[in-house]
Each structure stands twice: as structure tokens, then as C-alpha cells.
From TrEMBL:
It comes from Pleurodeles waltl (Iberian ribbed newt). GO terms for cellular component: nucleus. One of its GO terms (molecular function) is DNA-binding transcription factor activity. It is found in: Nucleus. Residues 248-278 form the C2H2-type domain. GO terms for biological process: regulation of transcription by RNA polymerase II. Its main location: nucleus. The keyword Zinc applies. This is C2H2-type domain-containing protein. Keywords: DNA-binding, Metal-binding, Nucleus, Transcription, Transcription regulation, Zinc, Zinc-finger. InterPro entries: CR1/CR2-DNA-binding_regulator, Znf_C2H2_type.
Amino acid sequence: MEPPRPSRGVPRAEGRVTAAGLQVKRAGIGSTIKGRTFGPGNTTTLPPCVGEARAEECFLRHGPPTQHTGTHVMNGWKKEEPCLVNGHHCLPRPAEVETAQHVAGTPPERPLLQSAHIPVPIQRKPSEKADLDEVIAATVLTSLSTSPLLLGQGTGICTTEPCSKVSKEGALVSSSCSSSTNSGDWNWDFQGDPSIPSTPSPPLSIEVSKTCLSSAQSDDGIEDTDTVHFLFGDPIPRKRKNSVKVMFKCLWKNCGKVLSTSSGIQKHIRAVHLGRRAEPDHSDGEEDFYYTEIDVNMDSLTDGLSSLTPVSPTTSTPPVFPILEQSAWTLPAPTNSELPLVTPLSLSAPTSLCHVHTDHAYQAASPISVSTAKLFPGNAGFSFSWQPPPVLFKTPPGSLNLAQIRTVGVNEKRLQMPHQTVVKTYSPAVSAPKTGMRKPRGDAKKCRKVYGMENREMWCTACRWKKACQRFMD
DNA sequence: TCTGCCGGGTG
DNA sequence: CACCCGGCAGA
Ligand SMILES: [Zn+2]
């Protein structure tokens, strides 16, 4: 007995962040935090990251805390003043807030995302006024540098590739920070020991994402939609060039959860940090403040992985990612993000851990998936140049077939992604022994159980079709 | 009873 | 094909 499903074909409002969502949802956020505030231009002193700010976050966002100015509030940048840090000038995404306003002291709508964090060379001066001027100057420069026009033309900051829609499912997973509510959203945390500020010395590169601001200039004419998503604060996982995958990182204190979908991270934040049970549809969007986009370079990642002990596809013991213990790095989901990568600590993960695999057989099942597929031409959420053999694909969950991951290399610049035709294939992964014997049911938890009926859209395609699960194989 | 998914149906 | 689901069988 399944609960009435949402009408098929109508993608759930993932990006329920509407225009309203861009409004300040938390009036006075930070104004009371630690009682420390720094007015605009107050860069004379460089208070270390204090208050709720996390050192690692600050570092991630702006560099060494000691070079910070302003106040970090919770996990976001206090909006009351411009963030002029370590040569970086934080600007709200153009679409969200007017640059001039921001500089003038008008708080951005939300914590500045890394993606909007554009480095701008700035000469620090002792006087406040001078700093203010700098801020203004930087702002101008930044705004220029982030203009769609420029971005679209080889600034390398943003690609013109279709910043398509939200990738529905899939995720990388991790461990800690989790809660019983992460259903389906696998992730992993960056921090190993909360007490140790994780420094950005990841084995794999994670770069501050320059969110695809260009949109308006995309040549495939998709940006309209994309722009909408973007403007409405709905981060869109998209495939960049070959190996850059956009992930979403939870910025909550001591949580470094990284998920591959905005919805996932939102859910995580709502449930774990905000303690809200309400459906995303009823969310006030506050969670948007606590996560940011990060670009993950597949190449680096895989390079790092290559050093790991290869795991036999038949291994029954789930391999563990040593690197996971370290810091920020992410592994993109192989396909339309329908792949979990887990650490042993993952709570919501099925019994099997740490595996990378996809649901190739059933791709782009839902409308959402379709759009995802669109984003990830070639049917693979990421440019993995692999054609998983039907049989070999029978990789047991928990095994990481490194051989299937191709290394490419981080790209600061997003290149346009050629549109490819989505290849949908349904190859029931080899009908094993055709002995007519119904193969014994695996006892592994499948999508249905892992995500639950209410999250059916998170199931792998096969499960949705009531076929043999392609995600959590036995 | 729940779950996984085969086998078959539909468009 | 992509997608859906009745219904069986194992847990
Ligand atoms: Zn499944």
C-alpha cells in the first residue's frame, strides 16, 4: 500500500526557494551573536574568526582567520558589513542583491556563498575610510568580474554550460553529523575531529565554486531556466567540463556534511541542525543559509583514490576511504548522482558501505532524472568514461571500482559542455543464472527501505520500476 | 506483513 | 524502449 504518490511527471519542487526565499529569513541574524559586530569598513583590526564562525569555514571561505575582518555569524558571513578578507571580497551573488547596496551596508540576503566569493586583490590600509574605499572598489571589480558577460567569455570563472536543473538524487556520503533523517542523502563529513579545525589541505582539490553566474549567456539557450534556478537560490548540481562536480557542503558548525544535491543538504540542515521536520515545501528556506556549493574535481579525487588499495568488486567487505578521514574532498556520483559513497559511520546508509556505483541500467527514470541526465550528457552524472559492462557492473555495494573512475583534473574554468544525447539503457544487468531459479533475495536494504516510500523519488530507477535495485546490490 | 523484484503490460 | 505494477516469494 503506497501512499498516494505525487503526480508523476511533476518534479517535486526541489528548489522551493522562491523569490521569497531570497529575502532575509532571519532578521537580525548575528546581530546578537557574541555581541560582536563590525561595521562596514571596519578593517582596522583583524579579529580572528570568532563567535560562531568556525575556523575551518573561515579558512575555507577567506583564508587564515587572522586575516579576517568582520564577524562571522553562525556559519554564514555576517551580512551587516562587507566581507573583506584576505584579499577576497565577498559579494552576494549579483542576482541576489545589488552590489551597491551590499557595500553600503545592506546585508545580503543570505550568507555569502563561496561561489560568490571572488578573489579581488586589495591593498589593505590602516584607515577605515581607506578600507571602505577598498571595499567599494573591490565590489566594483568583483561585480564586473562576475558579470555574466565576462564570465561567459573566458574569464574561466563560469562556464556557459547549461546550469541545468537540480540533480535529484544521489550523493556522496559520509558519516558523522548524520541523523536518522538523512535518508538517502549520503555524505561524508570533512572534519575528523571537531576539535581540530580542519585546514584546507585536502588531498584532493575542492575549490570555491564560482557559481554559474553566467547563465544568461549560455549558448544552448537553457540558461533561462537555469537562471531562474540560480536566481531563486536553488543551487544546481551540474556537470562541468569533465570532472568538476558541484556538491553542497553543510556549513554548520562542526558539520561538514557534503551532499550532491541541494535538496539533500537542505533536508539535512533542516532535520539535523534546524530541527525541523516540516516538509521542504513548508520550509522557510532558512537552511539555505547553512550550506554552500563546492566544486569537486573528479580528477584530483580519483588521483587520490588511485593510491588507495583497489577493491575487488567481489569483495564482501566494504572498503573504507582513508581519505574520508581527512578533509574536504568529494567524490562525485558516477551517474545522475544516483550513487552513494559512504563512510563506515554513515548512519543512514545501508549496511553496505562506501561504494561507488550507479544505476546505469535504469537511467533517467523520473522527469527529474531526465533533467539530470540532460545535465550529465552521456547518461553519466559525471564524465566517467566508462561503459560498465553489464556483468561487471554487478559490483557489490561497498566495493569501489576505481578502475571505473577516470581521472581528469580540476578545472578552474568551466568549459562548455557539449550537448550529448542522453543514452538510456535498460539492461537488467544480466539475468544471472537463467536457471529459472529465482535468485534468493538479497538481504541488503534497498532503496525502498533506505529512503522509504515517502522518498520514492530518491530511489534508484530500478527500484522505482520495481526492478532489481541497481544501487544497493547484493 | 513487508520487501524485493520478476514478468508482463502499456503507450 | 521507458515506465509501471500485479503478484509471487522470501524475510
Ligand atoms: Zn534501488
